Amino acid sequence: MQLHKHDxxxxxxxxLDEYGIxxxxxxxxxxxxxxxxxxxxxxxxxxxxxxxxxxxRILLSVSxxxxxxxxxxxxxxxxVGTCGNLRESLLSHTDGAELVSASFAAGQSEAMSxxxxxxxxxxxxxxxxxxxxxxxxxxxxxxxxGFTADExxxxxxxxxxxxxxxxxxxxxPTARFTFGLSLLVDxxxxxxxxxx
Amino acid sequence: MQLHKHDxxxxxxxxLDEYGIxxxxxxxxxxxxxxxxxxxxxxxxxxxxxxxxxxxRILLSVSxxxxxxxxxxxxxxxxVGTCGNLRESLLSHTDGAELVSASFAAGQSEAMSxxxxxxxxxxxxxxxxxxxxxxxxxxxxxxxxGFTADExxxxxxxxxxxxxxxxxxxxxPTARFTFGLSLLVDxxxxxxxxxx
Lengths: 196, 196
Description:
Two copies of one chain form a homodimer. Chain A has nine helices and no strands. Chain A is an all-alpha fold. In chain A, α5 packs parallel to α8. The first copy, chain A, is globular.
């Protein structure tokens, strides 16, 4: 039976959800699919490429073209919407924030490249000059990844029954996330005016 | 010979620098110190507590009281200085950003609690009301951790000879880091005015 790339990504995502990123190895994945490790390397040159494909699978709804950045004038809504979708997608898979952060750093996730482009376009629309738009977009992404990795660690420890300090901080995470985003959006607006 | 807590933390930090966080286990640390694992548990109830102590060791210069937040009126300098020190400390140890992020999320790092308090004080000085000062501080911390984790991943892959995409992005990381911080500082200033 032929091994399709799509099936490999689905199986890897299931392993991730069940065991976490530390236990997602090429060897284990091959065993799960009842193929030799060599069959996996035919689709993915290395583990980083595989993780990038899983990242893209996790982020399907974020980079979906049916979910575009809102039209002109609405750059604030665009940034808040894109980052909100990104956070929700990360939270919907075990270790999602850690896996997507690693894939983004390695430049292996096409979906994250799309998110970066969406946010850069929103920054440009806000009036940020073109040589700084990508930097603004990266700043917003680092905040979103950093916040969500922290939130997800707490959630997963909580689910495992570990004793985590500062439990008050876990209250109303969406409002807390949005508050930090609003700081960044205010900063972008201030920066654009300073340039004008 | 008696096993001192300080020696355990030093040995753990050396293991971290040499092998990375994935290979820093209680078992390996005990072998390195030529003691039984039980001897370690006398000092640390679990691995999270040990990682918290290593995080505090890494962050010595950031939370040092001889390195306080600048005096009144200088909250911008305080935030930029604290976050710059935090980034440098994280970069000076293998997987420093990942280890400190995990310890911060678990509430196990006293040094990160001090950083949070320093940044909250700076936010209050900027005019942010008291119920939002800690949220502002956390936003700045998540950006710093997210940026530095990404930067450190790239550096470590580069050192290992891996082929990392977007190498242009690795140019002048300090200027890029500071640019993102300036966006946040502008946002804090705008937010304070909005409250006033």
